[in-house]
Amino acid sequence: PIVKSNEELKESILTGDRIRPFIKKHAASRQEPVHKIRKKADEYLDEIAARYSPGMIHLMSYGVGWIINSMFDGAVIDKAGLARVKAMSRKGPLILIPCHKSHIDYLILSYVLYHNNMPCPHIAAGKNLSFWPLGPIFRAGGAFFLRRTFRGAVLYSRVFSAYVHKLLEEGFNIELFIEGGRSRTGKLLMPKLGLISILLDAYRNGACDDMIFVPVYIGYDRIIEEHAYVHEVEGGKKEDENLSQVIRARRFLKKRYGKIYINFHDPISTSELLAENGTQLDSMPQKEINALCRNLGWRIINAIDRQTVITSPGLVAAAILNIPRARFTREELMETVQTYLT
């Protein structure tokens, strides 16, 4: 896609037919001047929008490569699956949907795509990650930020939807985490369907000819956040992301966390999915669209699950946790491991 300046994108959204009539209607309902509501929408776009910079992405690829080589023993990448994804990307924007276990997820996926001659996606990130100095860096790498809830924020919700519509219209790939946050147990969480619903709405309104959903499994021999996760699972309070966390994260560079595993499920074409069901999105009642959204969410979760890699540390840990006694022999451990393998 052609990378436009942030001001050009903003002006295109705010003067477009999707948002301009709504701003007038919203101003009238609140009995406020149109220019005041437009200014508020402009501020919301500043809060949300990425500042996509190919130059910064090129620079960040060195940093991410150094971090990964310092902390991990390499990545095992599903090259055949990636080739299928690359071929499907010709039909329309990719909606990359990985499982979410670590902050490394969005770094490694963009890194892999970049080094396989594919554009880095725009990444839907929680607003909690927009703090300085990482916020501006993430924005330059393609991150756009959203609030945890849109409840009561009618104008914000409409502006966010218009921004997503514009990204698809321009042909950008989008990455989102359907679980809504990082899993603390390693198990997949229930799908959160808000962003999927916004994407389907954009497709129905003609943002793109096709939209390709790509379930992605990203797994690790060990998670760098393991101590924080144990603390939270035991009832401890989650610490908000901040600059001090970034500074303390230097200690992780002294440890090794094994390998990273990345598998790609067969892409799901929205137009082909609708053709299979013999229907078109623009002719479906809202109740059927909601059902389609739910089914698609579960289909993606199950697709990620089918790509899961069973790692040796995970297998041994599971075996140890399921031996009821505090002390056991190596033979007993291997017997339990063999049961899992079977």
Give the total of beta strands.
8
Distance between the termini: 48 Å
Helical residues, percent: 40-55%
Strand content: 5-15%
Uncertain segments of ≥5 residues (pLDDT<50)? none
The radius of gyration computed from the alpha-carbon positions, rounded to a whole number of angstroms, is: 22 Å
Structural class based on helices, strands and sheet pairing: alpha/beta
| Strand/helix succession | HHHHEHEHEHEHEHEHHEEHHHH
Assembly state (oligomeric): single chain
Report the mean per-residue pLDDT as an integer: 90
How would the global form be characterised? Answer: globular
Largest sheet: 8 strands, mixed
Number of helices: 15
Essential attributes:
single chain, alpha/beta
Helix and strand topology:
Layout: H1 6-14, H2 20-30, H3 34-48, H4 54-71, E1 75-77, H5 79-88, E2 94-98, H6 104-114, E3 122-126, H7 134-140, E4 143-146, H8 154-170, E5 174-175, H9 194-204, E6 212-220, H10 226-233, H11 243-248, E7 260-264, E8 268-269, H12 270-276, H13 286-306, H14 312-321, H15 330-341
Parallel strand pairs: 1-7, 2-5, 2-6, 3-4, 3-5
Antiparallel strand pairs: 6-7, 6-8
Helix pairs in contact: 2-3, 3-8, 4-6, 8-9, 14-15
Q: What can you tell me about this protein's structure?
A:
β3, α7 and β4 (143-146) form a beta-alpha-beta unit. The chain has 15 helices and eight strands. The protein starts with 5 loop residues before the first helix and ends with a helix. α14 crosses α15. With 342 residues, the chain is α/β, with parallel strands linked by helices. The longest helix is centred in the last third of the chain and has 21 residues, at 286-306. It has helices at residues 6-14, 20-30, 34-48, 54-71, 79-88, 104-114, 134-140, 154-170, 194-204, 226-233, 243-248, 270-276, 286-306, 312-321, 330-341; strands spanning 75-77, 94-98, 122-126, 143-146, 174-175, 212-220, 260-264, 268-269. The chain is globular. Strands 1, 2, 3, 4, 5, 6, 7 and 8 form an eight-stranded mixed β-sheet that branches.
